[in-house]
What does this fold into?
Amino acid sequence: MATLTIARLTVLEATRRRLVLALVLLTLVVIGLTGWGFQHISHLTDAAGQPVPADERRFGVSQVLILVEFMFSGVLALSAAVAAAPAVSAEVESGLSLAILARPIGRAQVLIGKWLGLALLILLYTVAASALELVVVAAVSGYSPPSPVPAVAYLVAEAVVIMSLTLLLSTRLSGMTAGVIALVLFFVAWIGGIAGTIGEVFGNAGIRNAGTISQLVLPTDALWRGSVFNLEPALYQAVVGGTTARGGDPFFVASPPSTAFLVWCAAWLVGIMALAALSFRRREI
Amino acid sequence: MVDDAAIRTLALSKRYGETEALAGLSMTVPRGLVFGFLGPNGSGKTTTVKLLLGLASPSGGEAWLLGMPAGHRQTRQRVGYLPELFRYQAWLTAREVLALHCRLAELPRPSWPGEIDASLATVGLADRGSSRVGTFSKGMQQRLGLAVALVGDPELVILDEPTSALDPVGRHDTRTIIRELRDRGCAVFLNSHLLGEVEQVCDQVAVISQGRLIASGPIDQLLGAATVRLRLTGVDAGVIAAIDRHGARTQQDGWISVRGIDPDAVPQLVADVVAAGGRVHAVEPVRQSLEDRFLSLLRGEPT
It folds into this structure.
């Protein structure tokens, strides 16, 4: 009950502080612009003025869509980190948490409530924005990615992972520091993922292992790759998947994340939240 | 330990690194009284409150609230708290803040509207319930904090500097609220360094300095023995002897003060002075203010 109260408060805060409004407006602008761009791609002509063959057009749209989703995943991760960074620290620093924590509520409940609220916001925003983008792309270009639902689910998971890490940091560090650290780690994990695939292509075990370790320490990049895999046209995967032509390319993935990795991600989330609860419980208010 | 005290601490201490914020505080706050907790800045008053509410962990000793160990979750349901650093969700209305606290205090939902209306009316914010807290002045936010502390008919209310942002009217209102709380059997633990205010409203006080308790007890007892001062002429050895029979005599600026005299014995003192040949021009009772007593305690002077 108390957990849900805090979750509700977190969602209400994002709404009242106009975070949701700002995201919705900016997303609508971006979707409008990308829709305009996709329409142009689908009407491209070759040097002779003839329309580009449908398969090539579809391939072009699929690749640009992956690029747009990449930008979206970056914005989503950034927003999740920025929203989570002050969630605990700012309330402790301002004294807002004094009156709350003096009530019959455990600190773990406060933390899980905030996590639930932020996760719900991420889920709703990602599903709504992605659905609208895919509908617009389908309407203007006729192209739909093969597995949009898992692709969006991976994006949600990626944002929830970075949000959880930031929430953990927020139990001890100021909002600014927690946010900066989370974003640096997010980009380090991205580079780590690219390095890992380069190591694989060139058979360098050291680099490959470093990439694997970075994916285990912070699974954001591996989850992004899960999203990419589900956005790639099946034919393209069949043609390119068996080659090393795009080794190291963050916009091409030959295979989806393994079940073992997804189990690891779930365990990672539970572990991070347990650590966050422990850290917050021991914090002097 | 289960007891009838509103608050009991035993050798409660708190260290922050090398700094000893609280050094073995042992005190008892009875139920149903207004208890003033006094001390200069940095003496450990707010640290004590945070330890009592479980917001910080003690380095040593123990504390109980309403018979249960400090920080016990369900006991906090019966405790109201106004923090010194009062801050409430700026993006909520006053009514929403109070509804949040009704929810967190686990009050039955049907009672919320009544609780919210009553506490807003008590603190004088009845007409601002639908305004966002972000539009409130500091004084109004402190009034809202007091309303939050009153939610759920608590058995103990802990007020940490409750009038720091209030104007004289607000201070007067707060004193009235504190007296009303006492009248309905609620214990009030009042952290303050506004000594005049404490003197007006508290039944008992404790004084701490540098994390240590230096005095505690009923306020009359703490202020020490009654004193009367006289302006006399015709003072000779006989008059002096008559005065000395009633109490400890000091002389300053033409006034003779008699300390430790029973207030009922003042007419007899005057009669004795007149009988000894002294002429009485003025007789004034002198009561040491809490501020004077507080300062003398901090300087380590005896009663």
